[in-house]
Amino acid sequence: MRLVFACIAILGGSLAASAQDLKAGRQFAPACQGCHGLDGLSKQPDAPNLAAQPAIYLVKALKEYRDGVRKHEQMSVLAKALTDKEIADVAAYYEAIEIEVVKKPE
After folding, report:
1. CB neighbours of 90 closer than 8 A, spacing ≥ 6?
2. Where are the alpha helices (DSSP H) in 20-100?
3. Which of 14, 40, 43, 67 has an alpha carbon within 20 to 30 A of 102's alpha carbon?
4. Are 5 and 15 contacting, i.e. CB atoms less than 8 angstroms apart?
5. What is the Cα–Cα distance from 14 to 23, expressed in whole angstroms?
């Protein structure tokens, strides 16, 4: 089951990134960086990392904030102003950020 999900995520992610405008998505990053970090890696304990998140998840979350399904004071206000295309672009931008996980020495 995990393998199937991983394949769907990989295929869906690569299709989403190619269909969307990463440059346009990047222009929304300054509005996000206060809470989610300059590079999509949050420095705040209550704000999630956005870097390398699947676009399908980010699109769903942003639309839910915009439509009032999810509630968060700041996210709801920011998301209300975004069109579906803008949401897709910013989600593709954050998905395209590559991260490297470094294991701390024990």
Report:
1. 25, 28, 29, 32, 58, 62, 82
2. 22-26, 29-36, 55-66, 73-80, 84-96
3. 14
4. no
5. 16
Taking only the tens place, the pLDDT of each residue in 49-102 is: 999 999 999 999 999 999 999 999 999 999 999 999 999 999 999 999 999 988
Q: Give the residue among 1, 27, 6, 17 at the shortest CA–CA distance from 96.
A: 17
Judging by beta carbons within 10 Å of its beta carbon (0-12, 13-18, 19+), is residue 11 exposed, middle or buried? exposed
Place of tokens 């803008």: 86
d(CA 63, CA 61) in angstroms, rounded, equals 6
- The two tokens of residue 30 are 């300054």
